Amino acid sequence: MAEQFDAVDIIRTKRDKAELTDAQIDWVIDAYTRGVVADEQMSALAMAIFLNGMNRREIARWTDAMIRSGERLDFGKLPRRTADKHSTGGVGDKITLPLAPLVAAFDVAVPQLSGRGLGHTGGTLDKLESIPGWRANLSNEEIEHQLGAGSGAVICAAGTGLAPADKKLYALRDITGTVDCVPLIASSIMSKKIAEGTDALVLDVKVGSGAFMKSIDMARELASTMVDLGTDAGVKTIALLTDMSVPLGLTVGNALEVRESMEVLAGGGPADIVELTVALAREMLTAAGKPDADPEQALRDGRAMDVWRAMIREQGGDPDAPLPTARHTLDVVAESDGILQDMDALKVGVASWRLGAGRARKEDPVQAGAGIEIFTKPGENVRKGQKLLTLHTDDEDRFSRALESLEGTLTVSQEPVVERASVVLDRIAR
After folding, report:
1. Are residues 267 and 162 in the same domain?
2. Which end of the chain is more exposed for a tag (fewer CB within 10 A), N or C?
3. How far apart are alpha carbons 181 and 115 in whole angstroms?
4. What is the predicted pLDDT for the residue at 301?
């Protein structure tokens, strides 16, 4: 059967800064999924898009074509509305863990299809797999049962049937320098989230050194594009821009972050984690038709913890089992008296990755107990010799490279530091 278009003509069109037609977009996504368009041809098209952009119509059609490359989940038969959250990734970002059970405590189903870490950003599934017995891979039937008759919350891996074109294209973008492109990032995220079938979606778009979006203008552009895509697809979509210049919370690493998440669910935990968890929960609950719900009360009275324990058990985990710990630790201390000036999120994330908490390739294993504990945040007074961080790893040889990653941050001086007013920087909605 003759193909409708030629890949080279489509590449030329975008190379020459012209718009792709709906038919061209539909064909190229389908043909790439089928293997008719070669990787090198899609690489050239992705670079042309990276350099010349897409307009709102093109991005929407590209997203829709990727959705149509696979299956769509339908939670319409559930006895409760659904709401989901997506984070663009950061350092110490364990918000999904307390957030999903917190929202589900108000009879809103949370189908949180999550991913694994790559590079300096941690993966939600890697964190949860540090819980003995917990499993990430569920069938569609198991997901629907857990959301309906079960705890109401599920955190699991996205099935291979959701937006397979995106999975194939993302792997290509990762090796061709075309990851940080707003049209391609937005369509990648939203194709999976729309195919997931949720009623409402709240986006946590990170800004700062530890995020993919380094400037607030870039983050606002990405957030606005994704909100437009969700709204056009009939999904109530809101975005919060949140600070990722400093790690979130006081832990970075898989089991360490699970422990901290359970502290939040028990009514404690670091102030920034609690603030962001509650802010996102309020947005999700409002979008699901429950604007008067009080998520802070649900953390205090134990309802969110009850849902967490049920959710972990439903996925084979033991919520009471001891979490893994690393075999070796090393303290990083202040070299002088003064005020801690900075704690660069990217540098801390890379250090945690080098300790074994992350992976360089998707097939690499991770250490459940590896990571970093944080004892002091910027703006706090310290004394010479005071502990700032503790590094955790199973392999002592990793300490030297982790320490190299921290060079240039953790500086101490007598200069006062302006504290951020809130981790939430902006809100975008339609």
Report:
1. yes
2. N
3. 20
4. 96
